[in-house]
Each structure stands twice: as structure tokens, then as C-alpha cells.
Amino acid sequence: MTCRVGVDIGGTFTDFALLRDGKVTLEKTLSTPQDRSLAVMTGLEKLATREGQTLAEFLGGVEEIIHGTTVADNTLIEMTGALTGLLTTEGFRDEIELRRGYKEDIWDVRLEPPPQIVPRRRRLTVPERVLFDGSIYRALDEDAARAAIRRLAKQGVESVAISLLFSFTNPVHERRLAELVAEEIPEAEISLSHEVLPRAPEFERTSTTVVNAYVGPRVSRYLDRLSERLHQAGFQRELLVMQSSGGVMTREYLRQSPIRVLASGPAGGVVGGAHLGSAKDAPDLLCVDMGGTSYDVSVVQSGAAPARSGWNWHHRYLVAVPMVAVETLGAGGGSICRVQNRALQVGPESAGADPGPVCYGRGGELPTVTDANLVMGLLSERSEFAGGSFQLTRRGVDQAFERHVAKSLGCSVEEAAFDAWRVVNANMTQAVQRSTAGRGIDPRDLTLLAYGGNGPVFAAIQAQELGIGRVLVPRSSPTFSALGALAARPTIDEERSYIVAARNADLEQLRRLWRELSERAARYLKDAGFASAEVSALHQLNLRYPGQNWSLTVEVAERLGNNDIDFVSAEMRDTAIERFHRQHEREYGHLRAEEEPEITGVRLISSVAVPQPPFRGGFSAPVREASPTGTRRANLGNGFEPAQIFHGPELEPGHRMKSPAIIEETFTTIVLYPGWEARVDDAGDYILEANGSD
């Protein structure tokens, strides 16, 4: 008997998915911003009660808890990380501030740089120099290093980032600096660039290391606190944590590079989407996750969501570790509606879980998207909300819209709510267009997968505006990122730098680097309870044309058993070069076949298969019209009209519903806007299709 639990913490709700012997149980609880581990324990207690067990009995039988967290993201958004210092090579003090001249909005001439994680007074240099080949040109000046470290100590630094030139080829100076920091500031946490990101370019490595040092202490404290609470409550195993790459790994592995949990919550949904889409014959997906605080957009193509390393910008900071591409927008059910300069603005500020929207009845005073949905009739006071944990109330909602929106715009409360609905929908649609057009993807070629508590409310109208004719809404959509975490494999994805003309590559050096990565992965996976024979190893090379700054990752070989590198040969190298040319043409529209590319490094993705949630599709049940439980007055985009109401838990495979209609599921609401209909497939999931009617 297997029992696994996926957990995803959002800004408003904390979601749970229990997988026991192929059966999935969903649960939600309000997040606890003051200590997010409290919401995790509350949700686990709810699951234990539903299983008829005490918390200790339940946790004693749980084999794995997989946790996606937004602690690192919140730290960057709120700028509440550790007081951080940077030690770098003499002459490179300002590189982190110069960045690359990159500007997120090239049309905004007034856009200021992001807040400095490490201001200049805490960026200090040390005399030393390692050359590109690892040879030491100038030895580390330990006296000068101690003086710099003592200056940082006087400023009260809690975390120190160390990033020296070419340390990824020879880390001896970084390691010695770490020893000196430990002597002078024993309480400080230390981030070494050759451990966080052991490759060039220099700015990317330094930026990633600085962000790691900034968010690391808060992430580590949270995971330590949660692990301690879990063990005290009866959980006997190691907590597994979702990574931004789409894999999971132990807390101990992530301790040296906690930055790998950045954006780990959304990654779970993308991984789950890839599995679900393949099961439903929809390998190309536009995944949209609208929760209470944020809206996440990602694309799955050919049934996969590969993690890219390099040019990853999150919250305006470059983070070059492998990450599944997800664009996040401050748009959710808790997004606050207000008028600024006589224009309606929705988000990015959120009411969160405390106090939450006005309709939660928990003291909120500012109108939100959820309040607008209630005014429009998309939600109802009479319906169970969040699994029946509480009910919405209209009390105070109209007054909030009147005071903060309607009065300034000179309109009615219902018009103000509808305008808020239109604005947040437009914001989300524009985010989708940026994510797709920026990568040369036509959204009309995709199926929209909607999840999160609020995703299905807007899914059909967004699909209509994007020209998408098919929408998937899984029954598990309100906790889909937690369920997706259960589909994620324990994974270690690491690189080593090796810069050389491809045909001059030393095959023995390639073997040595891959073997080093293999042995390291095997050690950590063994600590997580997985034998080497279970490990699937994907070997890759990073290549680029001479003069290029960025590399493409080319797959070389996949082996079962982490230590098998018998494929390394001259033929392998030549095949990798040819694959690079073809991949470059596919991604950039051109190739330079006459030029010999450079190898910039090796990459190894080691992973282990785990029991999967029961993703499936099909329409074998006979189609029949579902019976509504009633009607209510609702505005589905064309003004108020009667809309049929369907009770989701009563719907079975084969049931069909036509617009205008609202399907009330246990933890979410699905809106069928004019011109749409929905069917329930064999798995109990909803397939929404545009039927062409008005």
C-alpha cells in the first residue's frame, strides 16, 4: 500500500493532494502568512480526519510528503531576506549592479533598477586571480581577505555570497575564503558560486549566488521548522521539496542551494499538466494557474516542460539554475481593485488569506476579484466555498465597491464589479500573449489547461479571446499544483563547466565530469532512499557557436543506472554537434553549419520513477444532458441573465452542460460563458469546447 501527500502553499490557500493506492483525495486550508508551516499541519490534520485516523497514525503511514513552497519568491517580492554581503575578485565589485543593461520594459524610460540585494558598501573585493584554465595567477591575499570580512562583520551581515573569477575551474580560493568567513563570522551562512552555479558567465553566476545567499536563510529556517513539526507529529521520513526544475529532492540536498526552490510551487502544476495532457491526447498545453494571489502561465509542448538554465529572470533578478519557464502575474481572487488617476487598477496587491477578500467575512475592507465575482453572480453566498470550510457573505461587499471604485468612476456597484472582472481578465490575457508570442508560439495551436481555485472561473472567456477552442479543467484543478508535485520525480540536475572547441574535447575529461556528477547524484539519492540501479541518467552537453554568449543544451544519451558512461566516444561527439546545428535552426531559424561549435559544459539529470497519480482520458460513457440544481441571476459577460447551476460532485462521465451555466465543484467554480459547452470524460474531468453559438 502506497500513501503519498503533495502540498502546495499559495498566498491565500494551502493545497493538499493525497494519493493512496491510486485514489486521490483533495483538501484545502487557508494559508497562515505569519508561519506557513502551521497551515501545512492544519491541512494534514484534515486529511487524517477524513481517513479516520489521528494525525500521528496518518503521518506514520505516509511514505512521502512532497512540498512546493513560495517562501523564496515571497522573500524576493517582499525584500525580507538576510542582510547579505558579497566577496568577489578585485576589480569586479560593481559587476552585479551593472547587470547586462537588461531592462524588463524597454519602453519605460523611467523604470528603475530592482532594489539592491547587496548595496555597494557590502560588496567588497579581495586580491586574487584564477585563470580560465584553473591555474593560479595571483594567490589569495588572506590578510586583505580578513580585513574585508571584518568590515562585513561590522555591518552585521547574516549571509555571505562568495563569487570569484573562474572559481568553477578551480575553487581553492573560494573554499579558503569560506573558511576565513566561518572563523570571523561563525553565525553567517555562506554561499559559494562554484557550488551554486559552477559555470560561466560571470554575471549570471554572481547574480545567482547573491540571490541564493539572500533567500537561503529564510528558506532553510522554514524547511527546518516544518521538518521538525512533521517529525514531532509522527512523520518518520525525509521531507521532499519541489524544485524549480520540476523535480523534487531532499531538504538536505537543497540546503547548499536553496535558490532551487524559487518558483517551485508553479512548477508542480506544469509537471502535472504534462502528464495530464499526454493522457488526454493534448500534448501541447497552455497551463494557466489562477489562485488567490497570483496567475501563473506556462507552456507544455510535445508532452514535456523542460527546465532551462541560463536566462531566467524572476522578480527582476537573474537566476541561472534550471527552471521550468513560468511567468507570474499579480492577479488572483484576492487581487485588490482600486481607482488610481481615474483608471481602474486590479492587483498586483492582494488581500491574501488574512484578512482576505471582503466576502470572506474576516475583516477585509478593500474590494477584490473574488468580491467582484460574487457581485456578478459567478459565486454565491448559498454555495459551499473551499470545500465547505466557510461560506461567502455579501455583507460589506457592495459598500466596499461603492466606496473604492463605483463612486470614483461614476457607475453602479454591479458595473464596477464587471469592470474589475474585465480588467483582471485583460491583464491575464496579455500575460499569456507575452509568454507565447515571445517564444514564437501561436496559442491557437494549444489546449488551455485551467487550474487553481479561480482558473476555471475565467478559463473559457480567456480561451475565447486567445482563439483557443478547447479547455481542460481537471476535477483536481483547485489543488492541481499539489497533485502535480506527486507526479514529479526525485531529480538532481547539475552542470560542470568545460570550455573547449567541440572536436578538441578530451573524451576522458568528459567522462570525468559526468562521473563526478553521477557520484554526487547517487550519494544524495541514496540518502533519499533510492538505489543507484533505480536512477535514470540523462547526459547532456551545452554547446554554442564561437562568439555567442548563450549555449543550447543537447541530449547525448540516457541510461538506467547512474554510473554507465560507455557511450562517450568520438561518434557521440560528432552526433552531438549535428544535433546542435539542427536544434539551433529549430529555435533561432538559422544555423552556421560551416562553423565548429564550442562545448561550454556538461549536464546530468539524474531522476527516479515514482508512483503516478491516475491521469487518464477518453469518452466511452454515453452522452446525456445533465440536470441543473437551479438557476441564478449572473453576468457572464453579456449582462445579467438566468444561468443554470450544476452541482459538480453529482456529475458523472458522459454528462453534458451548455451555456450559460455555472458548475460548482467542491473547491472551485467552472463558468460556461456564452458559446461554450462542457462534457465530463471517463476520468471525471471537464472538457470545455466552443460550440459556435452566441
Uncertain stretches of 5 or more adjacent residues: none
- Class from secondary-structure proportions: alpha/beta
Largest sheet: 9 strands, mixed
Quickly count the helices: 17
Please tell me how large the radius of gyration is.
Answer: 26 Å
Task: List the keywords.
nine-stranded mixed beta sheet; Dna Ligase, domain 1; 35 strands; alpha/beta; 694 residues; single chain
Task: Tell me about this structure.
There is one protein chain. The protein is of the alpha/beta class and 694 residues long. Among the domains are: 3-75 and 220-261, Nucleotidyltransferase, domain 5 (2-Layer Sandwich), CATH 3.30.420; 81-214; 491-608, Dna Ligase, domain 1, CATH 3.30.1490; 624-690, no CATH class. It contains 17 helices and 35 strands. It has a 9-stranded mixed β-sheet with strand order 19-14-13-22-23-35-34-31-28, with helices on both faces. A hairpin with a 4-residue loop joins strand 29 (630-635) and strand 30. The longest helix is centred in the N-terminal third of the chain and has 32 residues, at 202-233. The relative contact order is 0.11. The model has no long low-confidence stretch (mean pLDDT 90).
Short overview:
With 694 residues, the protein is an alpha/beta fold.
Topology:
Layout: E1 3-9, E2 13-20, E3 23-30, H1 36-50, H2 55-60, E4 64-68, H3 71-78, E5 84-89, H4 95-98, E6 123-126, E7 129-130, E8 136-138, H5 142-154, E9 159-163, H6 172-184, E10 189-192, H7 193-196, H8 202-233, E11 240-242, E12 248-250, H9 251-254, H10 264-279, E13 285-290, E14 295-300, E15 307-308, E16 313-314, E17 317-318, E18 323-324, E19 327-329, E20 335-340, E21 343-350, H11 369-375, H12 397-409, H13 413-437, E22 447-451, H14 455-466, E23 470-473, H15 480-487, E24 491-501, H16 507-527, E25 535-544, E26 552-560, H17 570-588, E27 598-608, E28 624-625, E29 630-635, E30 640-647, E31 655-658, E32 661-664, E33 669-672, E34 676-680, E35 686-690
Parallel strand pairs: 1-4, 4-11, 5-6, 5-9, 9-10, 13-22, 22-23, 28-31, 30-32
Antiparallel strand pairs: 1-2, 2-3, 7-8, 11-12, 13-14, 14-19, 15-18, 16-17, 20-21, 23-35, 24-27, 25-26, 25-27, 29-30, 31-34, 32-33, 34-35
Helix pairs in contact: 1-8, 3-8, 5-6, 10-15, 11-13, 12-13, 13-14
